[in-house]
Here is the input.
Amino acid sequence: MFDRIAKNYDAANRAISMGMDKGWRRKTIKELCPFRGGRYLDIGTGTGDLVFEILDQSANVLVDGIDPAEQMLEIARSKAAKRGVGDAVSFLTADALDLPMGSETFDGIVSGFCFRNIERRQKALEEMLRVLKPGGKLVILEATYPSNPLVRLGYRLYTPWVPVIGKILGGGAAYKYLMDSIENFPKPEVVMDMFTEAGFVEVHCSPLTFGSVSIFSGRKQAAV
Ligand SMILES: C[S@@+](CC[C@H](N)C(=O)[O-])C[C@H]1O[C@@H](n2cnc3c(N)ncnc32)[C@H](O)[C@@H]1O
Here is the structure.
């Protein structure tokens, strides 16, 4: 599905989020707090925007982006080439449930709008914990269903238009699925419990834009 919408994915993202996705990504990477010399992983990297945001916010970092959708990765690679950052990034075909990296490799992991597409989310969190170094941080940006009834009403009025925008940009059915999956995604409290169950500490959730997206974070226990 993501291969089919890859070509217009960035344009659709901008249109559907009314340009707000850039700010959400900036805040997500601020929460990750990448440091000079660190090594980072973006899971479900798609066209790579979170990878580039890490590079924008920190010098001298190495960032891997993984995704099973090869067409999305092709766009990420060409964006990296255009920016001249090919030495700092690697885009690899891989699945969140079976990361081809050794244990304790990364100082931080980020993932944007991918987690709700994964069926075995608990297993994915355990895999993320495995590849994080002790003390490393996981930050997940995800679309969430607003809890305020008034905001929900506005949301319900807006969401039928998303597949229409998607259709104009060549992926109506895919965008219908993406919107439906937000309603089916667990509440933020449940997601936080999943982090804790996987073994993360300092688990936190920050709602943005009236709770229509949330930034979830957790840390791998530091070595004693
Ligand atoms: C909505 S896109 C988000 C792309 C990008 N992270 C962003 O912020 O725009 C979701 C991405 O997650 C990827 N994805 C879906 N299931 C995955 C899995 N099991 N492991 C890794 N990536 C996955 C899809 O291929 C797709 O590129």
